[in-house]
Every structure is written in structure tokens, then in C-alpha cells.
Amino acid sequence: MIDTCDQIFVLLQHWLVSFLPAAWQTAAGVLLSVAAIVCLFPALFALTTVFERKGLARIQNRLGPNRVGPFGFFQPIADGIKSLTKEDIVPLSADAAVHFLAPVLLVVTVFMGFAVLPMGRNMVLVDLDAGLLFYFAMGASSELAVFMAGWSSRNKYSLLGAMRAVAQMISYEVPLLLSSVVVVMITGSLSLTKIVEAQNHYTWGLPHWYIFTPWGFAGFLMYAIATTAETNRSPFDLPEGESELVAGYHTEYSGFKFALFFLGEYVAMFSISGLGTTLFLGGWSAPFSFLTWVPSWIWFFSKLMLSIFVFIWMRGTLPRLRQDQLMNFAWKFVLPMCLLNLMVAGLWRFMGDGWLRWVVCSAILLLAYVGLGLGEMRRQRLGPRSYRYAE
Amino acid sequence: MTPLAGYLLVAALLFSIGLAGALTRRNAILVLIGIELMLNAANLNLIAFWRYGPHPEALTGMMFAIFSIAVAAAEAAVGLGLVIQIHRHAKTTDLDQMNRMKG
Amino acid sequence: MSIVFYILAALTVAGGLAAMLLRNTVHCALALTVAFAGLALLFLNLDAQFAGFAQILVYIGAVAILVVFAILLTRGSETPKEGVYSRSWLAGLAIAAAVFAVLGWAVLQSARVLPHETAVPAVTVQQIGVALVGRYVLPLEIVAVLLTSALIGAVIIAIHEKVGHEKEEHK
Amino acid sequence: MQEAISIAPQLSASPITEILWLIPAVPVVAAGLSALLKQAGRKTAATLAIGSLSFSLLLSLVAFVHVLSGWMAGISTREVVNFTWIQFGTSNVDLGWVLDPLSAIMLVMVSFVGLLIFIYSTGYMEHDENYTRFFCFMSLFAGAMLGVVIANSLLLLFMCWEIVGLTSYLLIGFWYQKPSAAAAAKKAFLTTRVGDIFFLLGIVWLFAQTGTLLFYNHGAGSLESASLFMLLTQPATLGLTAAGAIGLLIFAGAAGKSGQFPLHVWLPDAMEGPTPVSALIHAATMVAAGVYLIARVYPLMAAGALAGGTTTALTVVTWVGAFTAVFAALIAVAQNDIKRILAYSTVSQLGYMMAGLGMGGVAVGIFHLITHAFFKALLFLGAGSVIHGCNEEQNVRRMGGLKSDMPLTFLTYAIGMLALCGFPLLFSGFWSKDGILEAAQHWSVAKAPLYMLVFGALLTAFYMTRQVAYVFFGHWRGGKPAHESPSVMLVPLGILSFFAVVLGFIGTPAWPWFRAFLNGKVAEFDLNVLMERELLTLMGISTLVVFVGIGVAWSFYGDRTPKPTAPDALEKTMPIAWGWLSHKFFVDEFYGMTVIAFYGWWGRVSDWLDRRVWGGTVAGVAWTFALCARLNRFLDTNVVDGSFDKGCEELNVGGGLLSQVQTGRVQTYLRILAFAVVALAAILIWSSRA
């Protein structure tokens, strides 16, 4: 019974596919899974927008949407209908083809990432040997979509927003990759299912998640920072800073194309949270050994939603950074920490079992954190605010 | 035609396209793009020979391609840096106008 | 020769052609990414998973972006008045055609002795990794040094010489 | 097969043997570190040296205790760790180290005496500006010496041996600004090289014969029965077996290092170095390395000897040792420099050790080596203290009456002197020398060595008494009054004198613990042995000899205060003999007239050849070339230049034409390149088709 619950989606797929001729079964199975993903995440997106608006409202001491449906829960439906029926405006001087392709490319590359994410036991679309590499390849491609959107709009705000976004994404892709490489080093595999399997062990009822090791904890922090920047979320939302750039690279988009961008951003957030869950939080494995009877996909999605909640929480709490602060932070703090973390992971790997490696690795990371942090703080000379005026 | 010959022909075509671009375009960046295309065509050759060669488990062609990709990335970075600096200096990226060896 | 190969080859060659023929430089760069993507798919078709994904990551994720940045920084997105092809384009084209002729001739000449379908090589990423830090560790180190020096070199080349620039502006 | 044995650490080696290499390595590392120090880093240098050697001593003690406990349990310990150093073709050169009773005892002795002398040096060298350099060399020496001791391969031993020689050279010439010190250093280096060449020949021969230089390698080493048997069956020249010939060659190396006749000349001159150096290197340890080497290869030297018999090699060792013992003792009688007397005494005592080895085996020689190391180090340090106290005065004739000025130095010096003389029963020298005499008594070949050694003992007692009488009795004949040395110098003296007394009791005939330990037997305490008539006679004779020597010397020198310039008491009695003795039997002069004169003559001949014959030839060739060159210049200016100018014009024109190609257009270059590639490929394909 427990197994059936755990594998319910897999069994469902097998059952549905079994009605078809044998030659078609594989293709149909893949198609079915793709369809499920393509349906599931937009739905989750819709739900999340409500939660985000209501959560932000609670943080800012407001009520949030509460008119459409019970407690305002039908708000996304209303929004969806609105954006679908709105006029699709393409600026006269815009590059129409590229302008059209940009949101499509974004959504496609973002959804591609889900192909290798294991969402539960045996629940992975394609178990690629180089899964992580595939994920990052797709993530890197989405930058091009952002650039296309910004450039094709023929609007200086769009272009500036796109440039900012691409520069930021490239800058933070380095720590993102480096913090993930740590996991690969320890697991010895790029396959995401193998990474989850490696974490699915228990000692004294506690899981072997990578976040519970010194390098894993540091890596997770770096990863979280990098993902926040990578998805252009607050406090790294400069590319979309309304006060500076109207709305960034999708200023000139309206109607359904705008909705696609919106969808793409949120789905990117889901997928990158899913990757973080897989890499550091044990993927679909249960947090305690006595909870393993709960279906694995429930654990995956609850961890994913927890990450999303942290994203929303950060957005409600932290102010936006300045561009130079953003870059300094990436290159002078996050990157050195990531490089050091690589070394620590190597040390961890070769020191063998025992308490000593815990002490040594933690000490190195803590010292580096404090040292680098103090260095950063010292550079910040807080003085009276200076105003600059346009000439 | 064997599959290998097909891949080699595609690579040759791509190489020639890249060469033609590098020879005919005015813009320095596009010349660089042409060179990138030529490099990629070479990579395709390497991978194809690896796949259909006698000892794929030795990974020689694959390794060659991977290193070539890494080197191409470095080449692109330096090349584009040069183009930007030239643009700053001469206010143009037109190769036909850049025929003086003296700065 | 499967139909997939023909589709991918057509896509790649079309991308390459577009990259070299289009008038708008940004369009050229975008067409280039199409060619890159086609090549990556060709790699996958050749069972070189790792190389294919690395191709996407490096070329589409980095080189294409770099090209695009360079185009924007050099104001190359505006089509020049005097045309996009150099004055001696005909000679260039002829030589490129000659190169293709020679290469194609060579391939067709040797087509008889080229190997036919072989078994799919079972190569895992782990094997590649082991080879990289084992047999190929020296090239790996050299590439690492090269990348570092290229990074520094690119920064030094492209760095804004503030003092000189400001003086020019004052004039 | 050998590889498998030597690469993998042997299972039988205990942990202490595995880390035995640390004992020499740590002082060497300390030397390397202190070489990096500035001159001002005096404290650091001393701390490094003393700390590293203390560490070595600690490890040596652990190793010794390990061997000792094995011996107590009735197991004779011989653990080796071997590894392959170089591999060429099918043969390989293995290095390794060994822990057995011999090396364990030597390790403790070297590191302990070395440590005491290091501590002493901090006081003695206090005012020297090259303090750090001194400790650097000393540490290097200690490391290399310990390396000699643990080496399980003749090659490794030779390497350390040469480093030891190098440090000896460096330390003798420590005050290189003194011409005499520089000359002495050079002399020491060159003289020992003479022996080392023979040594090296022996090594090469041994390697050629046995294919290994390891001493012990689980039956495959060169000192183990299989190899020895093979060496014995190989005849060499002059009726020697290969084993005997190799043994003699190795002995030549040992003779060089241990100052045996005729290569003894460097050792007295080596006293130009600082006194702690003399004590450590030229009395206690390095010169004993030769004796140790013979002890180490003793199975090779003794190979082929039947029970109670002897071999040619050992006979040679005995005769050379006995002769050196008497010869050096005779010279020591007529010397006036306090350190020179001790130096000749050292040569003489080394002769005793060699003779002991030759006649009585390893235990007899090494026992004297150990006791001698302690009391001779004590004497040298005492002499250093005297020199320090007398403001760098070294001539015994200008001292006197120091008994009251330096009471503690006197006390310890007297203990050392009595131990060296072999004063009966209480002092270690008596027992160890007695062992040698006993061996000589039982030697089957000849009785002459016994008489020579007894005569040597008489002379030893005589010259030591003479020295002590000059230095400590009578009254002060020097310039500035003497003063007692600091306690940092006196404490090592005290410790050494303690051992100079008690060490004898581990090797008395009644309780031959030392011999039993080295030979892996059980030591039995049996006082009755002392009561045997033969032994008793011998002990009586040696006691008598000592008393006679002391008495005669006292009658000549006791309690008199001759002027420094007045002739010696002995000189008045026997002027001719005195002349010979004080000139060291004219050995140096003899060498000067023969070997060195020959080299000088040969050098002059070479110089003449160089200047006249070769130089003339070269000059002739040069002149011919000069002539050719003149001819050439004529041709150049008139014929070549004209055509060359023409050619240059052509080149200019050609360059002008070619510069058309250099358009500065990248694409043109690329085009030419591509065209060339096409042409080349076409040619290649075309030619391959044909």
C-alpha cells in the first residue's frame, strides 16, 4: 500500500500506456510525463502567485488579494483571463521575429530543466548520466532569451534591463556552478538520481543530506544566494527594478507574451529550487527514517515549496542592492567562498571518516567566512549620503 | 555513403561557410564568428572520428573536442576583448578600414 | 543515414549560412547560436552526451552571450552604409568554395575505406572524468592555465584606460 | 624477486625501524633550516641543533631499548628496511637501513656525545660571529654520522661517509681566515680522499661481484652467507680471494678516515678547527667511523676464517692498527700543543681499536671505540676548557698550575687522563684496552702485536702524565691569568667523566655484557673468570705498565717549572730520539719530498708542456688563421663586397615587391593561407592517388 502510494504516478503512467501498441509505449510514456510537467508547474505557478501576494501582504501589514473567489484564491484565474484577452502590442520599430521568439525560447529552456529532476522515487523523465550538466546547459541558454527580449524591443530600458540581467546571470552562474560542483565531487556522479540516492541514507534516524556537512552547508548558502540572483528575485532584482528601469527587459511585452515571461520566471524559480532540493536537501528522501512511509513526491514538493516560501520571505524583507554592490558581492565574496569550499570538499573526501574532518572543514569555512565578511564590511565606508544630479 | 562520410561532409561544409564568412565580412566580430564556426566544424570531425573510429573507449577524439571547446572559449574572450579595444581606439570594427599597422 | 541526421545537418548548415549571410549583426549572432545548437544536437546524435552539453553550456551560454555583448559595445547592431561584405568578397568566396571542393573531394575519395556503423560506445561521464584527471591531466592543467591567462588577458585588453579617455573627452 | 622484497616494507620490521631514518633526517633538516638563518639568529640555530639532536637521541634510545628488550627475550635483533633507489636495466641499486645491536649502540653513543658537545659548544663558541654557520655544519655532521651508523647499504654508507668528510673539511676550515686552518682543511680532505678512492673501488668491485650493496637483505645481502661464499670462491691477485681483496680496499678507506698509518697525517693538523669539532669529529665520532665500517663489514673481512683462525684482511688490519698505535704514541710524547698531543693519542687509540677488531672481533674493537669516544671527548672538551680559560693558549709549556685555577676542569681532565691511560679497575679505558690485549694474547699468528700494544700503553701513560704535569702542576708560566670556564661547559664535562668511569663495567671479563649483547648471547656474571691465571697475569702486566709509565713521566716532569723556552726534560736525555719524535718521524716531510714533490714536478712539467708545446701549437694555428684572415679581407673588400652590394640592391627591390603582399588586411592573409591549404591538400591527395 505504501509502495503503491509512493509509485502512484509511475503506476498510473504504466497503466495508461499499456492500452497502446508496444512500439508506441515509450514515446507515449515520455509524452505523458511531459504533459504532466507542463500542466503541473503552471498550476503551481498560479497557486504561488496568490501565496506570494498574500504572504507579502502579511509581511507588509496589508490584506492582499481577497476579492476573487474564497479568500481571493481565484485571483490567478482572473489574471490569466485578463492577460489572454489583452491586446498584444508589438512596437513599430521592434524586431518582430526575435520579439516573438524570446518568450517562447525562455519558457522552453526553463521547462527543459525539469527533464532531469527526480521528483520522486523513479519519477524522472530522463535519467541522464550528465544530468546536472544538461540542467546547467539549459539554464545558460535562457540568458539568450532574456537578451533577445531586451534587444528586440528597441527600447533603452528594455536593453539596459536585459544587459543588467545577462551580466548578473553570467556573474552568478559561476558561483552557482561551483557550489554544485562540490556535490558532484563528493558523489562522484553528474546524475541527479545518483546524487539523491547518495543522500538517501540514515544514521540514528537522521538523513545524510549534504546540507548537514560543513561544505554542504556553505555550498547551500552560496547556492541559495546564486539562485536568488539567477532568477532575478529580490534582493537581486535590479534587472526588473521598477523604480529604475520601468520593468526591465519585458517592458515592451504585453498580453500573453508577458504572461509567458512571468510564467517562465516563476517556473525557473521552481526548477532551480528543485535542483537545490536535489543537490543539498536530499531530493525526495524523507527527513527522518521513521517518515519514509510518506510518498517520496510529497517530500520533494514540500521541500520545493519551502524553498519558494524562503524566496517570498526574502523578497518581503530585504532591500534591493546597487549594481556595483551586486558585482562586488559576487566576485569578491561568493566566488572566493565557493573556491575555498571546493578545496574543503576535497579535504573532506580525503580525510576519511572521523570527527577530525568535521572540525577542520568547519574551522576553515568559518574562518574564511568571517575573514572575507570582515574585509567586505571594512570596505564599506558609511558616511553622509551624497546626491548626484543629472547635468 | 557511410554515416562518417556524412558527418565529415557536414563539417567540411560548415568549415567552408565559416571560412567564406571570415573572408568576406567586413565586421571584425563576424570574422570571429566565422572562425568559431570553423573551430566547431573541426570539433564535429573530432567527435565523428571518435564515434566511428576503432577505439572509442580510448576517448582521444572526445578529449580533443573537450579541450578544443575550452580553448575556443578562451580564444573568443580574448578575441572579442581585442575587438572592443580596437573599436575604442579606431572607432570602427570594419576590417577594410583597419589596414594601418601604425596605431 | 537516419532522417534525424539530415534534419540536424540542415539546421546546422542553415544556422551557419544565416550567421554569415544576414545583414544585421545581432541576427548573425542569433543564427550562430542556432548553428551551435545544431552542432550540439549532432554531438548528441553521435552519442557524445558530455561534449554536446558542454557545447551548449560553453557556446550558447557563454560565447554567444559574449559575442552579443561585444556587438552592443561596438555599436555593431547598426548596419553600416557601405555594405557588409568586403570589397574582395568574390575572391574570398572562391577560395572558400575551393576549400570545400578539396575537402569534399577528399571525403568522397576516401568514403570507401571509411568505417561503417559501429556499436555505440558505452562511455560514461565518470570515465571522461577519470580520463581527464588521469591520462589527460597535463593537458587539463595546461588548459586551466590557458583559461586563467586568457581571463586576465581579456580583462587587461578590454579595460577602460580611464585617464587617457577622460583627457580625450575634455578636448 | 629482489624488487618484491625491497619495495614492500618488510613485515618483520618493527615501527621503530620503520622510522629509523628520522634519526639522521631530523638533524639534516635542522642544518638546512639553520643554513637559511641570518648570522644574528644565534639562539635559533643553537636551539635547532640541540633540539634536533635531542630528538635523535630520544629516538636512538627508543631503538636501543627495542633492541635491548629483544635481546633480553633471547632474540637477536636485526631488522632492515630496504628500498630501491635507482633501477637500470635488470639490476637495481637498493638503499636501506638496519637496526641491530651494533647500530643501536653506535646511535646512542653518537647522539649522546654529540648532544653533550653541542651543549658545550654554546658556551665555547659564544663569542664567535659565525655561530649559526657552526651549528649548521655541526647538525649536518651529526645527521650524516647517524646516517653512516644506520646505513644498510655500502652505497648509502659511502654517501653519508662523504658528507661526513665534507663537514669535517668545512669545520676544520671553520676559521678559514687563518691560513693554517685552510691548509689543514685541504690536507684533511685530500688525504681522506686517497683512502676513499680505494673504498669506492671496493664498493664497485663488491657490486660487480654480488650485484647488491645491501649488507643484510634476508639472505640476499652482500654480508650474508650466499654472497660471502661466492666471494670466497672468486680468486683475485696475490693469492687473495675476492672477499679479502674487497676487504682490504674497504680497509684503505677506513684507514683514511680513521687516521691509520700511513694516512694519519691529516688528523693532527685537523686540530686547527674549533675544539668542540675536534672533540666530536676528530676524536669521538667521525674518526671512529672507519672502525665502525670495519666492524660493519666484519663478516666480509673474516670470511673464510676457520675457527680461531684469521684472514689476510684481518691480519693486515691488525698489523696496521698495532703499528699505528705505537707509532702515534711515540710522536705524542714529543708534542707541545695540548690538542696535538690528544690528536696523536687519538690516532694511537684508533690503532688499538683496529688491532682489537683484527684480533678479537667486533665486540672488542667497538667496546674500545665506545669507551674511547667518551673519555676522549671528555679530554678534548677539557682541553677546550683549558684553552678557553688560558685565553686561546695551546702550548702546554706556557701553562702550568691550573690545578688551583680551574679545579673542576682539572678533576674531570684527570678522570679522562686516567681512563685513557687505562688506570686499573676503576676506569673504563682499563677494561676496554684489556680486552684488546687479551685478544692479542690469544692471537695465533704472532705475539708481536701484543708487545707493541703493551709498549703503546706504556707510552700512553707517559705522554698523558707529561701533559697533565705540564698543564695542571707547577706554576703559571703564561701571560694573562687563567679562569674557570662557564657551567654550560663544565656540565657536559661532568656527565662525560661519569661515563668515562662507569662504562667500563659493562665489559669486564667477569661480566662481558657488551660482547654478549653485540654477539646476541647471554651475559653471565662470573667473578671467577677474573681469577684465571692468564687473565690475571695480563691485568697485572698492564697495571704495571701503566704505573711505570706514570712514574717515569712524573720523574721527568712532575712538579717542576721549566721555562717555556728551555728544552724539554726528555730532550736533554735523548736529543736524537727527541728530534725524530718532535718532527713526527718526518712523515710530513717525507710526503713533501716524495708525493707532493712529485706532483709539484709533474705540475711544472705539465705547465711547461702547456706553455711550450700546446701553446706553441695553438699560437701557430692562430698565426695561420690570421694570415688566412688577411687574405680573406682582401678578397672581401675587392671581390665579395661588390657582388654583395649588387645582391643587396636586388634584395631591396625584392623586399619592395614583397611588401606589397603585407597589406595590413587580415582577410588577405587568411585568403592566402586558405589558398595555400587548398593547394597543399590537392597536391597531397593527387600524389597519394598516383
**CATH homologous superfamily identity of the largest domain in chain C:** NADH-ubiquinone/plastoquinone oxidoreductase chain 6, subunit NuoJ
Query: Biggest interface: chains and residue counts?
Result: B-C, 71 and 84 residues
- Roughly how much helix do the residues of chain C carry, as a percent range? over 70%
Count the beta strands of chain B: 0
The largest sheet of chain C, given as strand count, sense and whether it forms a barrel, is:
none
Q: What number of domains of chain B?
A: 1
| Poorly predicted tracts of residues of chain B | none
**What share of the residues of chain C does DSSP label as strand, in percent?**
under 5%
Q: Give the helix level of chain B as a range of percent.
A: over 70%
Number of domains of chain C: 2
Nearest-angstrom radius of gyration of chain B?
Answer: 17 Å
- What CATH architecture of chain B do you see? Orthogonal Bundle
Gap between N and C termini of chain B: 52 Å
Distance between the termini of chain C: 65 Å
Give the helix/strand class of chain C. mainly alpha
What can you see in these coordinates?
The complex is a heterotetramer of chains A (391), B (103), C (171) and D (690). With 391 residues, chain A is mostly helical. Helix content of chain A is 68%, strand content 1%. In chain A, helix 4 (75-85) packs across helix 11 (255-280), helix 7 runs parallel beside helix 13 (323-351) and helix 13 runs antiparallel to helix 14. Chain D has 690 residues and is mainly α. Helix content of chain D is 71%, strand content 3%. In chain D, strand 1 and strand 2 form a beta hairpin. Chains in contact: A-C, B-C, B-D, C-D. At the B-C interface, helix 1, helix 2 and helix 3 of B face helix 1, helix 2, helix 3, helix 4 and helix 5 of C.
